[in-house]
Amino acid sequence: MSDSLWVYVGIAVAVLVVVGGVVLGLLRGRGGADERELGAPQVPGAPGPSDADLAPDGAIGTIEHPGEVVEDEPEVLPAPAPTPTVETPEAPAGRLRRLRARLARSNTALGKGLLALLSRGSLDDAAWEEVEDTLLGADLGVQASTELVERLRTRVAVEGTTDEAAVRTMLREELLALVDPSMDRSLADERVGDRPACILVVGVNGTGKTTTVGKLARVLVAEDKDVVLGAADTFRAAAADQLETWGGRVGVPTVRSDRDGADPASVAFDAVKAAAELEADVVLVDTAGRLQNKAGLMDELGKVKRVIEKQSPVDEVLLVLDATTGQNGMRQAEVFSEVVGITGIVLTKLDGTAKGGIVVAVQRALGVPVKLVGLGEGPDDLAPFDPEAFVDAVLD
Asked: Which amino acids does the record list as binding GTP (predicted)?
């Protein structure tokens, strides 16, 4: 055989070997795929699928890489918004019973002092002068104190008794006459025709006026009134926030400006308008505390009332007075009455003081009744004023 023939034979053999190897490789690959598709068992000793390769609890996963299963991410729902808690205020009747004990404690010195003096075996001029001094010390006022002493002297002389029970009866009757239970102490808190009642609340700085408005809202809500608050105190930065917090606790809306220093008359007007649109029973308008000797501030208060009256009559103007100011509060009351026409008094901080005579003094000075009294720091420590309960507490 020639050399060239051997060359051709060698080339043919090499080609056959290469082709055979390729064919064998393809057949082995197809067979492995078939085994995997048919779930053929793994070769003994070969590692099986790991736990990470399997979707838990039969969940269907997405295969991103060989041997890795990525679960579908669960849908995350937003947490439900918390439901605001709306408080149920204490009924006014319950407050009177609870607060009477506090008032009795604060006026113990006045009641006991008077009874001790009047129950003496002998009442001379010096004793009666002591009685009068005790009444003056309780802020009853000079005229009222003199009048009460004269009435008591006459009755003691006529009835000729110093028995403590009899003296107590006489003192109760005369004090009650001074407090005057015949005054109309009801609040203008009922709708008038097709409009809500409008109550304007005024007072000097530091009397607790905004807090009183918030507490009054609770009184009215406890009586099933629909109330709207107007935050017309735009000079004190926190006043509107404070009032809104009070209203929110009992589900009452507050109309306020979104900027400090806004025109208070405009805010008051908007509050009355909103109350009419909401068909509320009553709108309470809080105003900025002001000093009674500042003419500009008092004129502005008059403007607030006039602007409200362009839309609705003002049915009630409540003056908030601090009971501890005593006779100093009389001048305050008189100036406010001249500017906006006071219809009722709210006495705050009557607890902790034996100066309950301020009730008589302020009523006499203005000719308007004390309608509400504050006897504590609690949210329901504002109650309608009851003359008989007040006098009984003084003498308790």
From this structure: 203-210, 286-290, 348-351
Matching residue, tokens 């509050």: 271
According to DSSP, the residues that pair with 202 across neighbouring strands are: 319
DSSP string, 231-297: EE--SSTTHHHHHHHHHHHTT--EE--SSTT--HHHHHHHHHHHHHHTT-SEEEEEE----TT-HHH
Would the annotation count 176 as a binding residue? no
CB 165 within 8 A of CB 119: no
The CATH class for the domain spanning 197-388 reads alpha beta
Any known ligand binding at 206?
yes
Give the CATH H-level superfamily of domain 92-179. Answer: SRP54, nucleotide-binding domain (1.20.120.140)
Q: DSSP assignment of 29-42, as one string?
A: HHHHHHHHHTTPPP
**Is residue 209 marked as binding?**
yes
162 has binding-site annotation = no
Amino acid at 393: A
**Is 343 annotated as belonging to a binding site?**
no
Tell me whether residue 287 is annotated as binding: yes
Kindly report, residue by residue over 98-135, the tens digit of the pLDDT. 666 666 665 555 667 777 777 766 677 888 888 888 88
Taking only the tens place, the pLDDT of each residue in 142-179 is 888 899 889 988 888 888 777 777 878 888 898 899 99
State which H helix or E strand residue 61 sits in.
strand 61-65
Q: Which long-range contacts (CB under 8 A, 24 or more apart) does 233-238 make?
A: 233/209, 233/264, 233/286, 233/287, 233/288, 233/289, 234/260, 234/261, 234/262, 234/263, 234/264, 234/267, 234/288, 235/260, 235/261, 235/264, 235/288, 236/288, 236/289
225 is in an annotated binding site: no
Q: Report the chain's C-alpha Rg in angstroms.
A: 43
350 is in an annotated binding site: yes
Q: In terms of DSSP H, where are the helices of the chain?
A: 3-37, 92-106, 108-118, 125-137, 142-159, 164-179, 209-222, 239-249, 264-277, 295-309, 328-340, 358-366, 387-395
Is 207 known as a binding-site position? yes
Between helix 295-309 and helix 264-277 the angle, nearest 10°, is 30
Is 118 annotated in some ligand binding site?
A: no
Could you tell me the end-to-end alpha-carbon distance of the chain, in angstroms, rounded to an integer?
A: 148
Whole-angstrom Cα distance, residue 77 to residue 60? 21
- Check the annotation: does 210 bind a ligand: yes
Q: Does 348 belong to an annotated binding site? A: yes
